[in-house]
Amino acid sequence: MNFWTADSSGMDDTTRLPFWLGNVLLTLVIVFVVWRLLQRHGLTWTDRRWQAAMIAALLLGVLSQEVSGISIGMTLLILGFAHANRVLMGIAIAALLYFISRTYYYYLGATLAGEIHHSGQRRCGVPAAALDHVALVAAGVADA
């Protein structure tokens, strides 16, 4: 089974890492940060708060696999809050806003392309193929 990604960048498969490895490592970083913070506060694995925090960290890591920036921003926010560092919390909030808006913009283009493609009909007298091309250009998939 080949887990290596291939693209047209000219890199061979031996110099690239699996696409999912970064997401797994980010999830491990979130879990480690939460574990260290809980350890610093003297909580053990038998405490309900410890269990809830670890489950929340795992869920955050798993649910943010599509948008890895969310896990990065949340990790920075957790660290900033734990150390009462307002600058780090501000950077984390800015990072979260950036990654959420970037992802929203990316999926907006994909949604429009899919909606136009599946409709297969004319809108406002313009053929659906022309609208499909405009949506793909907006999504950055096709050239103008």
Structure notes:
This protein has 144 residues and is mostly helical. Helices cover 67% and strands 0% of the residues. α1 (21-40) runs antiparallel to α2 (48-63) and α3 (68-82) runs antiparallel to α4. The longest helix is centred in the last third of the chain and has 34 residues, at 86-119.
Itemize the secondary structure elements and their pairings:
Blueprint: H1 21-40, H2 48-63, H3 68-82, H4 86-119, H5 128-138
Helix pairs in contact: 1-2, 1-3, 3-4, 4-5
Can you describe this structure in just a few lines?
With 144 residues, the protein is mostly helical. It contains 5 helices and no strands. It has helices spanning 21-40, 48-63, 68-82, 86-119, 128-138.
What are the low-pLDDT stretches, counting only 5+ consecutive residues below 50?
120-126
Report, as a whole number of angstroms, the end-to-end distance.
38 Å
User: What string, H for helix and E for strand, traces the elements in order?
Assistant: HHHHH
**Largest beta sheet, briefly?**
none
Mean pLDDT: 77
Structural class: mainly alpha
* Percentage of residues in DSSP E strands: under 5%
Total strands:
0
Number of helices: 5
| Cα Rg | 21 Å
Globally, the shape reads elongated
- What percent of residues adopt helix (DSSP H or I)? 55-70%
Give a quick set of tags describing it.
144 residues; 5 helices; mainly alpha
